[in-house]
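Narrative of accomplishments. A recurring question from our advisory board has been how the design workflow behaves on a single, concrete structure rather than in aggregate. To address it, we present the structure tokens for one chain from the evaluation set, followed by the sequence designed for it. No filtering or post-editing was applied between the two.
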């Protein structure tokens, strides 16, 4: 069976850039820690998942359409363009792109949407017939999980493959309810405020009873606990906006057809990649 590995490139770059124990430079004194970590982690992810197809997607610098829904969306993200090189993961992005070209892996930067939208497009368009593994720590991808779509959270020996069973055990909901769940609880990472009085356990109980956020809002007067009922009613418009921010669909056009993403692992090492692109 075909197995497509989709790597959230920006997410992995940030994880590796800030996860290195110290600043790493090559023999010319050039900082390469982010590139070294990215390539090493990617090769380990590839060997762990054995994909037949791969694509790596990055967030580009452009207007975010979700800001029209909520100006506070991701408002607390730092402006890395104003930071010195040693604090800016994007300073090594061109080296990462060169490394991906060297090992013949298709990649692209978004120009009019978020990486989340492209990843969702692949999962929702191809996930019926193709096994898909999404490599990312972005929990929004939990909503895409099915029997054929999983989310890999790479952390060396502590790597976790998130499946429908994982979501049910961890959160007490089905993956398809994740956008509803996160709308209620909020998401501090994206500066999305949920409804007060509603934490993860309460959100799971509400969805267990009402199934969807839409049904919950339509029947809010039936919520048993007064403080929760009042919070849901008072925050109804906020919750609807949250859902539009969090819910992923397949409206974004896909940059590559599946056949263009075919990959054969050459069993190359990280050192060989860095040497091949002139960074060692």
């Amino acid at each position: 069976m075909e197995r497509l590995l989709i790597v959230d490139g920006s997410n992995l770059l940030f994880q590796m850039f800030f996860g290195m124990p110290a600043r790493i430079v090559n023999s010319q004194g050039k900082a390469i820690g982010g590139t070294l970590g990215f390539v090493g982690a990617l090769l380990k992810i590839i060997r762990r998942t054995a994909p037949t197809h791969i694509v790596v997607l990055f967030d580009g610098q452009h207007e975010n359409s979700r800001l029209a829904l909520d100006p506070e969306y991701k408002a607390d993200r730092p402006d890395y363009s104003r930071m010195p090189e040693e604090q800016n993961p994007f300073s090594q992005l061109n080296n990462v792109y060169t490394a991906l070209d060297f090992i013949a892996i298709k990649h692209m930067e978004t120009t009019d949407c978020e990486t989340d939208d492209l990843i969702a497009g692949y999962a929702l368009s191809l996930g019926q017939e193709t096994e898909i593994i999404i490599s990312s720590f972005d929990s929004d991808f939990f909503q895409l999980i099915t029997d054929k779509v999983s989310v890999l959270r790479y952390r060396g020996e502590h790597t976790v493959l998130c499946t429908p069973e994982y979501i049910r055990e961890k959160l007490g909901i089905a993956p398809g309810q994740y956008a509803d769940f996160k709308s209620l609880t909020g998401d501090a990472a994206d500066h999305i405020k949920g409804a007060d009085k509603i934490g993860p356990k309460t959100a799971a109980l509400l969805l267990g009873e009402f199934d969807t956020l839409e049904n919950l809002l339509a029947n809010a007067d039936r919520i048993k606990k007064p403080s929760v009922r009042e919070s849901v009613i008072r925050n109804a418009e906020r919750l609807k906006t949250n859902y539009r921010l969090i819910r992923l669909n397949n409206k974004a056009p896909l940059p590559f057809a599946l056949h263009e993403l075919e990959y054969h692992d050459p069993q190359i090492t990280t050192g060989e990649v860095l040497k091949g692109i002139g960074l060692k």
